[in-house]
Amino acid sequence: xxxxxxxxxxxxxxxxxxxxxxxxxxxxxxxxxxxxxxxxxxxxxxxxxxxxxxxxxxxxxxxxxxxxxxxxxxxxxxxxxxxxxxxxxxxxxxxxxxxxxxxxxxxxxxxxxxxxxxxxxxxxxx
Length: 126
Fold this sequence. Notes:
The chain has 126 residues and is α/β, with parallel strands linked by helices. The protein has helices spanning 13-24, 59-65, 73-91; strands spanning 6-8, 28-30, 33-38, 41-50, 55-57, 105-107.
């Protein structure tokens, strides 16, 4: 059974999702998420939030650091606004398709670095 919509995740997933949506003849939409960072360290992610406000947290990190979700609310809202801005840029004033109430097809592509073969010889450093 074909999905009613295909969702692509930016930064690699949209070209593949677009090809799948075209092949199936269904609409394409994007799902944009941004990291929720620690207020004291913007490089340390403790969760993610989408443009519509759905949030996921790394419960282990939050527990280990003695935080609660309320303390992260300002950062969650900043990340949600950034995700909303990025989603709006992708939509370019088009109305997003309405997701169906049943499962959708979600596509993400991630590049993987190849590991050298165990038989590969390396030059000794001098």
